[in-house]
Design brief:
This is Putative transposase. The chain is α+β, with helices and mostly antiparallel strands. It is built from three helices and four strands.
Amino acid sequence: MLVPLQLDERWSIDFVSGQRTDGRRFCILAVIDDCTRECLALIVDTSLSGMRVGRELDRLITERGRPTTIVSDNGREFTSNAILALICKPVGTGTPCDGNVASKFGDVSNACI
């Protein structure tokens, strides 16, 4: 996968999850601009449905414009009907080996605990 050379050319999205000391679980949706390495969004909640992810992506697209490509690690989180309807057609997929920048935010969950 080529490194993007322009702002908003490619975004990476990924989920990070963790558990608080009281046992409650939480998840974080991380959205990263792969060119600038800017964190566009960190959405934290106890549960993030496909519809919620779609709303958050729609909000970002309204604010910044639509990226050329959105990549993910093809995790089960991104197979819901709501996400598939949002994308409509495949615009790009990645794997953790492709350097998905969002997956590098794993340490963020430790900071939230």
